[in-house]
Please model this.
Amino acid sequence: MKAYFGRRYMLSASHRLHAPSLSAAENRAAYGKCNNPHGHGHNYFVEVLVGGEVHPETGMVMNLVELDAAVHARVLDRFDHCNLNLDPLFVNLAPTTENLCRAVHCLLQEALPAGLLDRVRVEETENNFFECSGE
Amino acid sequence: MIYLTRRATFSAAHYYWNSAWSEEENQKIFGRCSNRNGHGHNYTLEVTVAGEPDPVTGFVLDLKGLKDLIEREVMKAWDHRHLNLETEDFAQTIPTTENIAIAAWKRLEKGIGASGAALSRVRVYETAEIFAEYRGEA
Model:
């Protein structure tokens, strides 16, 4: 039987939304206060959903310890308490939560067993969240 | 199609143990969850049903009926119980969050089908950070 297992993690990071291809005025218009030159930060919640057969011996889709290890190694160790703009992924890409969500999905897809990752959801605040299923 | 979700909470004890394995193996795979004295959680169950709103009442299904069904089928069986020791669902099945979601689906499916709506998803939170869901897939 196919079931899904989800786990939530928090990471705190700073960012500044700024597109290098836009002028200062255009950046200000596009991103508003998120374009503040000195940046700002969020407590992001990253929700990882894996889906697959429930293993008959363990009753699990995936061992939580292995999922935690992958998320820590690939995502939290990389982004938590960091400035997202300084990460190589965001040198030429605005660190919007859409782009962060897609980056997390890519990093985890490489790290998890094939076909297991169903969806990544990143909550920027209580009121904003973004999801990526790798489509 | 409209999806409607009802939430309910229950508190229960459990442990993870595969009797085909040695104590060391259980400890290695399940860690602290294999402690045979058990531990417990405040579980949150989310039941999502799908259907078209009735043209007269505007309801996908009667929420009171859904509440009563969850109470009768799940809460009465699991709330303030030891899942391994006191429920038929987990006499032979390890009460992982995944298996709890599947067992809740089985308990609710028939009663919701009778209402005209269809069970779409069961999600079980073991803690605020850990959840499992079952969508009726084989």
In short: The radius of gyration of chain A is 16 Å. Residues 2-132 of chain A form a domain with the Tetrahydropterin Synthase; Chain A fold (CATH 3.30.479.10).
